[in-house]
């Protein structure tokens, strides 16, 4: 759809360039005659009639030449917003030619030529504005082109408004008083916290005020309409409230509920794809789409948890919840920047407020909530798999600081934090060189934020309930499938506020990431059957498992996000090599390493087993048993299956299970619930070998592949969670005794 829209603008540009070329033809001889004794027109008259024609021709020729090859080599991740931005910034309104026309006393023919030029000019700007609106409708908010197109549309709308100001009363809400105008700077759908309840709002930031509106339900095919909820003039808006302001309480939705919504969403998407392939009736598909929209809306409403709080002059607070640090920083920055420029307080009458709210339908740049129903059929489904990212270094800092970076990716319509580097202390050139593995679920964009770590806890930052750390810069890059499909690392630089951060990226698709590869080193530990390792070591539980769990229990039980936060990949590889080569100093190495690297090593060990801990043969039975509705039958089935595992597998699992329960006992500190642990370890312990995986790998159906993967992953999580939630596991005495008391463990 985006390509089709852009093909239209190419045709319009060709027509406009032809018009400008037609004007340039008589311009040259008229200019030459103007210096003779009998000029047809004087130089000022020529400059009035052909106002800015050569400049406009060059600008639009450059725009056309830049756009044409991008449309010809189109991909879902292609960006064009920069071209529209550049075009709109370069173009200047020729309306001052009207004043020149009045003074010059032109005859009818020159007046007609000037009017045609003005008319064609306005038509071109109007078309450009309409195209930008169409492009935004078909561009996901997570696409890196979206903010560029938003900015280009804002410039274009304000530009068109200035041209039409004297001829039409269009966009009355933009005119505050004579000589003053109100422009839309940014808008977005957000979750507002109202008396403890989450409400979906559309927030509009104008040059002089912040408006919060509610989108009315569309009945009987009526156009979109908004209800105003409240507004604050920017001169009266504050980010810090009175001292006696009560702390903000954010109702948290349990992770189990959020995951259940994702399971339903994945299931409904798969059903819709299946119905489409079966050429079923549209009523069935429409009903499924309605259910899908309800679940996606609920997930978007319940997921955000980062607050941004604003106050009016009376100290009344209004709170929004945002899913991403990046978006929260963008909103705060643009509001603060505009506050510096805004000098007059805008008080609206009820009629003015109603007019402004009504105008939001035309002014909005974000047209749809990010739901599947609002996406185009040919829109990219994003990437499903694993993205390895190395954060190398940063440059361009003016002073020495304590710096760290965080990484965000999008999935299910919103962004979330996925990884965090260590703090590099007091330097202008931090060199992290840390590698992270990030799971992608239909992701299209990678965002990076650079923070200054503040160790002064005596000065908490009250704004929006934030911590004390300060964002130094932020940037984003598209996750372009053609670029990332190769096996090689892709190096890139993200510029941000004068700082440049160097990255390397490598993507592994789902079908390849599923493979459990046997080790080529039979004497190693990783990739070797657990029975082989325990027999060689003459132990019940592999040495690597015992060592890692012992070190984590010694100093990692209170580590926030233990097992969830990525460890440094180079440290994990060093530990892997040490265990594989039976390095005698491995325990010393572990004592000196970050505990997240040890946790990552343990997860990697289980992930690289040639067969999962729950075995390929029993995996389908576990997946079926967890779906039983009768609780007695389920317990009997699940326990019998568990006790059917080979002894090394069973003993190792129970050893790990007891450890995970001890981790969850510290949930109030480490934020790792039983469900969080099941989410991390479920796929690692249960995911079958490639030959037994039920996940489709047809590259022509990426959406189905991703959703089927999600359904299977959720089943694996549920199996592990079931065992974690059992108070006791009644194993035969012989096995329980060997687990608890054997000196070989």
From TrEMBL:
Domain (DH) ranges: 1-86
Subcellular location: Cell projection, Axon; Cell projection, Dendritic spine
GO molecular function, one term: guanyl-nucleotide exchange factor activity
Sections of the chain in a coiled coil: none
UniProt source species: Cyclopterus lumpus (Lumpsucker)
Residue ranges occupied by any C2 domain in the UniProt entry: 367-493
Coarse class of the protein's main subcellular location: other
Pfam families named in the record: C2, PH_19, RhoGAP, RhoGEF
Domain Rho-GAP: 528-722
Gene Ontology CC terms: axon; dendritic spine; membrane
InterPro entries: Abr/Bcr (IPR037769), C2_dom (IPR000008), C2_domain_sf (IPR035892), DBL_dom_sf (IPR035899), DH_dom (IPR000219), PH-like_dom_sf (IPR011993), Rho_GTPase_activation_prot (IPR008936), RhoGAP_dom (IPR000198)
Protein name: BCR activator of RhoGEF and GTPase
Single biological process term from Gene Ontology: signal transduction
Domain of life: Eukaryota
Alphabetical keyword list: Cell projection, GTPase activation, Guanine-nucleotide releasing factor, Synapse
């Amino acid at each position: 759809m985006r390509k089709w829209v852009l093909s239209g603008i190419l045709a319009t540009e060709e027509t406009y360039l032809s018009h400008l070329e037609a004007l340039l033809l008589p311009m040259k001889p008229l200019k030459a005659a103007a210096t003779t004794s009998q000029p047809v027109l004087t130089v000022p008259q020529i400059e009035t009639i052909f106002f800015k024609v050569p400049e406009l021709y060059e600008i639009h020729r450059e725009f056309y030449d830049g756009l044409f090859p991008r449309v010809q080599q189109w991909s879902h991740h292609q960006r064009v917003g920069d071209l529209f931005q550049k075009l709109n910034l370069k173009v200047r309104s020729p309306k001052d030619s009207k004043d020149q026309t009045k003074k010059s006393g032109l005859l009818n023919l020159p007046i007609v030529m000037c009017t045609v030029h003005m008319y064609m000019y306005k038509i071109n700007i109007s078309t450009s504005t309409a195209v930008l609106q169409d492009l935004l409708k078909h561009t996901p908010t997570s696409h890196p082109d979206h903010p560029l197109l938003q900015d280009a549309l804002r410039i274009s709308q304000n530009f068109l408004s200035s041209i039409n100001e004297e001829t039409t009363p269009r966009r009355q809400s933009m005119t505050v008083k004579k000589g003053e105008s109100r422009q839309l700077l940014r808008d977005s759908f957000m979750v507002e916290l109202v008396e403890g309840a989450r409400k979906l709002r559309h927030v509009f930031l104008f040059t002089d005020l912040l408006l919060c509106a509610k989108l009315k339900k569309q009945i009987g095919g009526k156009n979109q309409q908004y209800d105003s909820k409240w507004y604050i003039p920017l001169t009266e808006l504050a980010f810090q409230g009175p001292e006696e302001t009560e702390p903000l309480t954010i109702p948290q939705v349990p992770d189990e509920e959020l995951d259940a919504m994702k399971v339903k969403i994945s299931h409904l998407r798969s059903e819709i794809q299946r119905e489409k392939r079966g050429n079923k009736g549209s009523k069935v598909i429409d009903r499924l789409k309605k259910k899908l929209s309800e679940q996606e809306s609920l997930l978007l409403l319940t997921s955000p948890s980062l607050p941004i709080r604003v106050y009016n002059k009376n100290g009344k607070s209004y709170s929004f919840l945002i899913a991403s640090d990046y978006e929260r920083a963008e909103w705060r920055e643009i509001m603060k920047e505009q506050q510096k420029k805004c000098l007059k307080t805008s008080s609206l009458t009820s009629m003015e407020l109603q007019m402004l709210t009504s105008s939001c339908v035309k002014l909005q740049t974000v047209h749809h909530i990010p739901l599947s129903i609002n996406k185009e059929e040919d829109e990219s489904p994003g990437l499903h798999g694993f993205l390895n990212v190395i954060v190398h270094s940063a440059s361009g800092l003016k002073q020495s600081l304590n710096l760290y970076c965080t990484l965000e990716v999008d999935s299910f319509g919103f962004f979330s934090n996925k990884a965090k580097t260590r703090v590099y202390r007091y330097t202008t050139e931090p060199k992290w060189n840390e590698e992270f593995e990030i799971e992608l679920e239909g992701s299209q964009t990678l965002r990076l934020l650079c923070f200054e770590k503040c160790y002064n806890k005596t000065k908490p930052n009250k704004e929006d309930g934030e911590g004390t750390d300060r964002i130094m810069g932020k940037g984003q890059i598209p996750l372009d499938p053609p670029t990332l499909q190769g096996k090689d690392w892709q190096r890139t630089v993200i510029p941000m506020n004068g700082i440049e951060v160097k990255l390397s990226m490598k993507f592994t698709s789902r079908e390849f990431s599923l493979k459990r590869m046997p080790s080529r080193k039979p004497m190693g530990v990783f990739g070797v059957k657990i029975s082989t390792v325990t027999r060689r070591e003459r132990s019940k539980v592999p040495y690597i498992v015992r060592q890692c769990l012992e070190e984590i229990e010694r100093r990692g039980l209170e580590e926030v996000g233990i097992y969830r936060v990525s460890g440094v990949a180079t440290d994990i590889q060093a530990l892997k090599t040490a265990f594989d080569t039976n390095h005698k100093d491995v325990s010393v190495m572990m004592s000196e390493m970050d505990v997240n690297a040890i946790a990552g090593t343990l997860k990697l060990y289980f992930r690289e087993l040639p067969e999962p801990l729950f075995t390929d043969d029993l995996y389908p039975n576990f997946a079926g048993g967890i779906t039983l509705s009768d609780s007695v039958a389920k317990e009997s089935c699940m326990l019998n299956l568990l006790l059917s595992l080979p002894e090394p597998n069973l003993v190792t699992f129970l050893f790990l299970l007891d450890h995970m329960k001890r981790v969850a006992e510290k949930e109030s500190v480490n934020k790792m619930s039983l469900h969080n642990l099941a989410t991390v370890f479920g796929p690692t312990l249960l995911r079958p070998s490639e030959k037994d995986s039920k996940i489709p790998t047809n590259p022509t159906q990426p959406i189905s592949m991703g959703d089927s993967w999600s359904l299977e992953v959720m089943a694996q999580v549920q199996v592990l969670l079931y065992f974690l939630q059992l108070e006791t596991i009644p194993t035969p005495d012989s096995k329980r005794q060997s687990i608890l008391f054997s000196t070989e463990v």
